[in-house]
Amino acid sequence: MKVAIVTGVGGLVGAAAARAFSPIMDVVVGVDNDMRADFFGANASTRWSVEQLRGELANFRNVDADIRDISAMNALFGDFGANIAAVIHCAAQPSHDWAASDPFTDFTVNANGTLAILEATRTYCPAASFVFCSTNKVYGDRPNSLPLITVGQRYELAAEHEYAEYGIDESMSIDDSTHSIFGVSKAAADLLVQEYGRYFGMKTVAVRGGCLTGPGHSGAQLHGFLAHLMRCAATNQPYTIFGYDGLQVRDNLHAHDLAEAFLAIYAHPGSGRAYNIGGGRHSNCSMLEAIEMCESITGTKMAITYDDTARIGDHKWWISDTRAFSKDFGDWSPVYDVPAILEAIYVEGRSRWCE
Ligand SMILES: NC(=O)c1ccc[n+]([C@@H]2O[C@H](COP(=O)([O-])OP(=O)(O)OC[C@H]3O[C@@H](n4cnc5c(N)ncnc54)[C@H](O)[C@@H]3O)[C@@H](O)[C@H]2O)c1
Fold it and tell me: How far is ligand 1, taken at its centre, from the CA of residue 129, in Å?
């Protein structure tokens, strides 16, 4: 019997991972306690997504437990033991703004929670392929020291800059920068995941995501930028841009493309490595460009307000260089670009938002 454990399964990435692994596993066990609703309010609850997975995948079940609950995690992993072939760890407190309001909860969920899942894996299924959803926030605000120029409605790098063609690679230092409390808790987890590969020889890989997105995101003001933006456009809600005049650039990766990357890791498990992953040059936009696209898709003019205060640790420009990942994992590359992602969010989100 082959089992995949997916933590944070109701979330954007966890749900996509469950769908991707369901056909190649006998059982997919999710772990999600809907803590996203505690972080961001009822609108951000992921219960609907867990229910959808229950209806859709015959071999899926969810355990409503906290990843920090060591005895619950040990009981779950102990039940399936060496049959666990893949552990996809997506549960997190995912917002750098929220983290500052409760650093203790942020750190215990992101760092201690990851340690609990790593230890359960080491104890009960050390041969499993372990994938951790890390983040580009491990680099802190170091990308903001890049020599950015304004081109049209976005920040850009001059063509001759080393990161201009493919984006930022893993050689960027994680030291000497402001990470936000969230960036630190995720960096701690990222290092633990690498160390369990190097020190204990486990098959651990950390993928440092740029903006991850898609119709499965329960977007909220503090997390899930494209999903929240499109929801505001479709439901005529005001939207606030924080800092940088809306010129800030993010690359955006559809959760489906990320789940394909997880399958590629499972097929050729690595050990102790961390990779940047995102939409790269194929799929990126500035805030202003994203607003324009939302307006064009919904046919409405958005009510935008500006707040000059940028979020602490927020990037002015991030595009992931994914060449290291693609080289090690079978030429993986993203399929969806930003217009296709926004269209999908709109089409699938409309009915849910109207309810
Ligand atoms: N979405 C992004 O833009 C992005 C970017 C980079 C990295 N990441 C990382 O990817 C991962 C998944 O992100 P996402 O966007 O799917 O997040 P999400 O908030 O949509 O999903 C996370 C899920 O984990 C659950 N959860 C939270 N704390 C829990 C706990 N203590 N015990 C059990 N379940 C818990 C939540 O209820 C939620 O359903 C996270 O680790 C996040 O840091 C996300």
Answer: 19
pLDDT digits (tens, 9 = 90+) for 293-312: 999 999 999 999 999 998 87
Residue 307: CATH number of its domain:
3.40.50.720
| Contact of 114 with 193, CB cutoff 8 Å | yes
Residue span of the structural domain in which 208 resides: 3-354
Q: What pLDDT does residue 355 have? A: 67
Q: Quote the strand ranges of the chain, DSSP E.
A: 3-7, 27-31, 60-63, 84-89, 129-135, 148-151, 154-157, 203-209, 211-213, 239-242, 249-254, 273-277, 284-286, 304-307, 317-318
Pocket test for ligand 1, best of 5, 6, 29, 32 (most atoms within 8 A of CB): 32
What are the pocket residues of ligand 1 if the criterion is a CB atom closer than 6 Å to any ligand atom? 8, 10-14, 31-36, 46, 66-68, 90-92, 94, 109, 113, 133, 135, 209, 211-212
Count of structural domains within the chain: 1
Give the global pTM.
0.96
